[in-house]
Design goal:
Layout (H helix, E strand, L loop, with lengths): L3 H4 L2 E4 L4 H17 L3 E7 L7 H5 L1 H25 L5 E7 L2 H9 L4 E4 L14 H9 L4 E3 L12 E4 L6 H14 L3 E6 L11 H13 L5 E6 L3 H9 L4 E5 L13 H9 L4 E4 L5
Parallel strand pairs: 1-2, 1-4, 2-3, 4-5, 6-7, 6-9, 7-8, 9-10
Antiparallel strand pairs: 5-10
Helix pairs in contact: 2-4, 5-6, 7-8, 9-10
Protein name: Nucleotide-binding universal stress UspA family protein
Pfam families: Usp
Family: Belongs to the universal stress protein A family.
């Protein structure tokens, strides 16, 4: 039976920034390649919950809604230009941007974010919102890292270690198939005393997916370096980097580990964050 991760729309957070315009065009193209719809999402978020006068000022609320509607209309134009065949929906809602995207993720196959927010999506990467989506979102999240042209050539790169969820590996293989490209599985051997990940451990993790996705050419890269540096080196020639998360831990700040956070700040290409239960 297909889940929403297979057939759900691609949702993208919209705030009028140039970064989100890039994200919208990319998301529209991915929706077309996946054969699903696109949902453009904006939160009419008040400047601060501590300033109750804003909540009571109907004029300010009206201006925020009007601005959000303009941004959604602009994003729709970008999406239609990038993928005219894709059905596009727009969603505007009061409240928190992160909470809105978490709700959208319940029926989406993918949530896409820009890197430099305005309005309702300010600080999505550096602040608590990214952690909220990573910890509570119901589908994988892709962040449009890098600047300029979004790479459309090169392999899909996935970081692999003994804690990596199979969901991240499966997502990476599926993306490689949809993009008709190779996959590079990167394992940092730093700290491995017996080297089992370089041999049987890594091979065992990948073997089932290699059989399922026999058309994907796989390169196993075992390097003696930190995971962040190893993945950034491969990201230079990749079109997507995929990392797993630690799941629904009691400490939400640990959901995005140091490797993921470093990639989100420094990667030259989009980064997908996939939680263990996104399967």
């Amino acid at each position: 039976m297909s889940s929403h991760l297979d057939v759900g729309p691609v949702a993208v957070g919209v705030d009028g920034s140039e970064s989100v315009s890039r994200a919208t065009a990319w998301a529209a193209t991915r929706a077309y390649q996946r054969g699903v719809g696109l949902r453009l999402v904006h939160a009419f978020e008040l400047p601060s919950r501590h300033h109750s006068e804003f909540a009571e000022d109907k004029r300010i609320r009206h201006l925020l809604r009007a601005q959000g509607d303009r941004w959604l209309a602009q994003a729709r134009e970008v999406a239609v230009a990038a993928a005219p065949e894709v059905a596009v929906e727009v969603v505007g809602s009061d409240g928190s941007a992160a909470e809105l995207l978490v709700r959208e993720s319940a029926t989406a196959s993918l949530v896409v974010l820009g890197t430099r927010g305005l309005g309702g999506f300010t600080g999505l990467l550096i602040g608590s919102s990214a952690v909220t989506i990573a910890a509570r979102g119901h589908c994988p999240m892709v962040v449009m890292c890098g600047e300029g042209e979004i790479p459309t050539a090169g392999p899909v790169v996935v970081g692999v270690d003994h804690k990596t969820s199979e969901a991240a590996v499966g997502f990476a293989f599926a993306e490689a198939v949809q993009r008709d490209t190779d996959l590079v599985a990167v394992h940092s051997g730093t700290g491995d005393r017996n080297g089992d990940a370089a041999g049987g451990g890594l091979a065992e993790l990948l073997s089932g997916y290699e059989r399922k996705y026999a058309e994907v050419r796989v390169t196993r890269a075992v390097v003696d370096d930190s995971p962040a540096r190893a993945l950034l080196e491969h990201a230079a020639s990749a079109q997507l980097v995929v990392v797993g998360t630690r799941g629904r831990g009691g400490l939400r700040g640990l959901v995005l580990g140091s490797t993921s956070q470093h990639l989100l700040h420094c990667s030259p290409c989009p980064v997908a964050v996939v939680r263990a239960d996104h399967a």
